[in-house]
């Protein structure tokens, strides 16, 4: 996995080229959020390997587009938008892969009783539609505010709330059907509350 500090050493007296300065800037911006961004990419995908691939592809795209980023303070938001964009493009391509299956995704465990809590959550998230999965992961795991999600995803605040409510309902259904676990209904955000 690409770590932000690999291969970007600049020695004293060495004049940096534009490409090197872009790499150094990218490393500086990515390092504080690297681990959270990887976790996010893995969470929105159906497997850890797909998440790692998504992150790698998004990092390459972000590095290529970094000169267009004018405000370094907006990097986190911008990188998550790149990850989501790459994820959506990959999701669209997945339609054709389903018609001609070529991947070797590991089979689900024989018994859901053998599955631990984290694996149950990964399997349940994998069953959600990608738009609900993105919203839930960003809100519940990453701690983004509803307004931030609306801006990031390019949708209204009410659409974000709808995705969160529907995603939670679907997760409860998945937990009940797939794992035999009854989850207590979680109250949705009161009108006007955005965390």
Written description of the protein model:
- The protein is mainly alpha-helical and 195 residues long.
- It has two domains: 1-106, Orthogonal Bundle (Rna Polymerase Sigma Factor, Chain: A); 111-181, Arc Repressor Mutant, subunit A (Orthogonal Bundle).
- 62% of the residues lie in helices and 0% in strands.
- The chain has eight helices and no strands.
- α3 (48-65) packs across α4 and α7 (146-153) crosses α8.
- The model is unreliable at 1-16 and 98-106 (pLDDT under 50).
Query: Termini, distance in Å?
Result: 33 Å
Q: Please state the CA-atom Rg, rounded to the nearest Å.
A: 19 Å
The parts where pLDDT drops under 50 for at least 5 residues are 1-16, 98-106
Please tally the β strands and state the result. 0
Report the CATH architecture of the largest domain.
Orthogonal Bundle
